[in-house]
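During the reporting period the student researcher (J.K.) took over the structure-prediction task from the postdoctoral fellow and processed the backlog of single-chain submissions. One of the processed entries is reproduced below for the supervisory committee.
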Amino acid sequence: MKKAILYIIPLFIVFAASSCKKCYNCQQYCAYCEPAGHTGIAVKVCATGTGSYARVDSFQHALIDSGYTCNMLQDNQDVCDNKNAVDDAYAYFQKQNYFCAEK
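J.K. obtained the following structure tokens:
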């Protein structure tokens, strides 16, 4: 009986730990700017955290003053409830210019 309890306790701990769900909130805040007449190179600048929104805004205004047309790309994605939450959050950050914070 004591051996059975010794096996049950670690199994319970492993089960409880695996049932904890990590969630991340991933945000995108980017200025996507194209030159007038679409002749030239498009530019995209993205925030890497909520504190860098002002940098993106000032960049956008500078390009608009230079004759560019700009669109803001803003989106929020919640990544959670699966075993790949960390990988999914990293993919948003790397491939889609999102920055992520654990919820």
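The committee noted the following: The chain has one domain: 21-102.
J.K. will present the remaining backlog at the next meeting.
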